[in-house]
Amino acid sequence: MTQTSSIDPKVTSRPTRTSGRIARLLYRNEGLRGYLLMSPTLIILTVGVIIPFLILLVISFWTRAGVGFDTTPSLANYARVVNEPMFGILLGRSFWMSGIATVATIAICYPMAYFVAFHVHRNKMFWLILITLPFWISYLLRVFAWRVILGYEGVINSSLVWLGWIKAPLEFLLYSPTAVIITLTHAWAAFAILPLYVSLEKIDKSLLVAATDLGDGPVARFFRITLPLSMPGVIAASFLIFIPTTGDYITPALLGGPDGMMIGNLIQAQFGSINNWPMGATLSIILMLWIAAVALAFLYLTRLAQARIA
Amino acid sequence: MSAPTFLRRPNRVLSVYAILFLVALYFPILLIPLFSFNDSIYVRFPLEGFTTEWFGQLWDRQPVWDSLWASVKVGLPVSILSTTLGVLAARSITRDRVPGRSAVVTFIMLPLVIPTLIFGVALLALLSRLGVPLSLYTVAFGHLIVCLPFSVATLLPRFEGFDRSLEQASADLGENGWWTFWRVTFPLVMPGIVASLLLTFTISFDEFIMAFFLSGNETTLPIYLWTQLRFPQQFPSVLALASLLILFSLPLILIGMWISRLGLHENTTKGAKT
């Protein structure tokens, strides 16, 4: 840090007093100055993100041999993923479950974001903080809360038994894909609100006025103006929920049961109890590739939506 | 601004929906503190009676204190380091014409959209290749990666939000870059810094996935909580611990969010007036 202070690469002031050659260079070259300031962050992210991913990629071509690894490159793991149906089923189920959770989250959050954007006129910030606050509570605890609700002797079952509506607890509540989807929807709701809200808030109100003047009713106005203009927000929100939920493993581990397991659980197990790191690495890479593909698709959709708006 | 009546008209259906939404959002979380005072080892209705026994049990348990201390030991340096790096990065992103600016921002924000699980296993692979033993240091490194995007995202609007002529005025009045930063920029972005410190500390304190893969013998509080989930008879004390975690995190987050947004609002209105 002392080095940075003596060569003062900040703001637009002329280097005074101890201005060496480096200081003058940094003063003149803004890009270099910027990268110098960013360099600690970029170095840490390179060490913590890029290099680990490269190693993961390398390991994915290894195979397990006894307790160690056989480091001769091979596509054996990838072949297993293709040939053994278990992997495909698990991958498909992960995408399916997080897809439903994403759609459900958007459907539930959209009216709420719409409400804050169009019908809250004072203290919008208060509403936004109120909605996003639960998102900051530990993810583990939010998932844990649903175990309390859906458990065999949980809140729902014990209440229903207590009220006399059912004789024995319902077994399908906990340890099912439904439980996972409900929990994911709840856990990510706060995250979806923000992009939706931002895109709705940006809509020029005079367009709505114009539509009304030209004879559109509330429903036509919504489908012809509001919804298309908020599409970038919908796409961004879907992206922000779909990606992390596909790789989730806490929720399926706590609530999924055997039928609700997702690819994340298998990856975690490969690095844990199964102890087949190369296979775990392969699955991680496949998941990453899938995420990249989805990201590109979303990017394309955003471009499309924006082109239509403009 | 005279908005037409249809934009101003309150919508009763949506208002009811908003209330229901908030109830559904908070209800599951509020059950945790509710049951942590329930005098029964089963989590079920009807409630049996009020007790503080579960909190008392926690108090007497040494591992709880150890993991609490571990979480603080990780959280404090992580929040300070990630905020410091966030300030540097946010400053250079907003002030210097950096080539490839948007690519850099995307790169920094990347950890936000990639599942933490993948980060966890990738870091684990790196550390084991390098032969670094797992410890609280490795957990802290993992948390730093998770926290950096949040720091930058909190600080960026700060740096964009104030009048840049203030910095130029300071430079014109003869301050060098270093003192301009300390006497003009730093006080103006201070709320963002405080917010970033609070938010990143809470993130690190509550983080589970990185800690799960990267912790050695010493475990953080969420990991301790996870291990206790295996024992049904421990369930009430897990609830008590979870309540304490929520009780501790919420005010920090609330203050952090409030500071970060409140100041920003003032700045933009000031900027609009002048």
SS-derived structural category of chain B:
mainly alpha
Total of helices of chain A: 15
Q: What is the CATH C level class of the largest domain in chain A, in words?
A: Mainly Alpha
Low-confidence runs of chain B (pLDDT<50, min 5 residues)?
266-274
- What is the makeup of the main sheet of chain B? none
Q: Which two protein chains have the largest interface (Cβ within 8 Å of the partner's Cβ), and how many residues from each?
A: A-B, 98 and 100 residues
Assign the CATH superfamily of chain B: MetI-like
Low-confidence stretches of chain A: 1-13
Major sheet of chain A, described briefly? 2 strands, antiparallel
Q: Your description of this structure?
A:
The complex is a heterodimer of chains A (310) and B (274). By secondary structure, chain A is an all-alpha fold. Chain A folds into 2 domains: 2-43, no CATH class; 85-309, MetI-like fold (Orthogonal Bundle), CATH 1.10.3720. Chain A contains 15 helices and 2 strands. Chain A has helices spanning 2-6, 21-28, 30-59, 76-83, 85-119, 124-132, 139-150, 155-163, 177-201, 205-213, 218-229, 231-246, 250-256, 263-271, 277-309; strands spanning 63-65, 68-70. Chain A has a two-stranded antiparallel ribbon with strand order 1-2. In chain A, helix 3 (30-59) packs across helix 15, helix 9 (177-201) packs antiparallel against helix 12 (231-246) and helix 10 packs antiparallel against helix 11 (218-229). Chain A is globular, with a radius of gyration of 26 Å. The two termini of chain A are 47 Å apart. In chain A, 43% of the residues are buried. Chain B has 274 residues and is mostly helical. Chain B has one domain (62-273): MetI-like (MetI-like fold). Helices cover 78% and strands 0% of the residues of chain B. Chain B is globular, with a radius of gyration of 23 Å. The chains are: A mainly alpha (310), B mainly alpha (274). Chains A and B meet through helix 3, helix 5, helix 6, helix 7 and helix 8 of A and helix 1, helix 2, helix 4, helix 5 and helix 6 of B.
